[in-house]
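For this section, I looked closely at a protein sequence along with its fold in C-alpha cell form, which I now present.
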Amino acid sequence: MSNSDLNDFSARLAASSAPKLRKSDRTRKSILDGALEFLWSQPFREMTIADLMAVTGVSRSAFYRYFDDLYALMETLLLGLEEDIFEASAPWFNGEGDPKALLRESLTGLVRVCYERGPLLRAVADASTTDERLERTWASFLTQFDDAVTARIEQQQAQGLIPEFDARPIAVALNRLDASLFIHAFGRHPRHNPDAVLEALTRIWSSTFTPARDAL
C-alpha cells in the first residue's frame, strides 16, 4: 500500500468512525472544539462558560459534566496537544537514518500541529499564571519535551553524530524558543507563514547540532 493509499484509507476510516461516537463523546468534543474556536479571536481571560456554551450550542450544565472549570478544559486540550506533538515529532526521536532529514521531518510535523492549534499554546501560557494546577501541567508539558530532546541529543552524541556539549540546557533553550515562536506566529489570526517558521526552526536546530567544521 502506497503512502497515498494509506492516507486515503486512514481518512476513510476516520470518517466512517466519526458517526459512531456516543452523544456524550460528541458533546465533549463540541466543547473542546468550541474552546479552540473562541481562542482564535479572543484571549483566554475573556472566555466565560456562558460564551463558550453559546458557541457550542449545548447547555451550561453539560459543561460541568465533563470539566470542573475553564482551567480543567485548558488542561484537557493541552494533554491532547501533547500527544499529537510527540506523534508528529516521532521521526527525529525514534527514527533511523539521516539525522538532518529526520529532524526536518519532525519539525515539519511540529509546525503543522502548532499551526492548527497555536492559540491553545497562547491560552495555556497565559492562564497558567493564575491557576496552580494548570501551571503544574504546563511545566510538566515543557519538561517532558526537555527530557525527550535531552535524551535524543545524548544518544546522538554517543553515536558521534553531533558534537559534545551539555545537552540539557540546549534542549531547554530549543524547546522554549519553539514554544515562544509558535505562540507569536500562530497564536492568533492572521497567522504567520508556516513555511517561514519551519525554515527558521530548521536552521536553528540544524546549526546547533552541526559540528563547526561542517558548518563552514
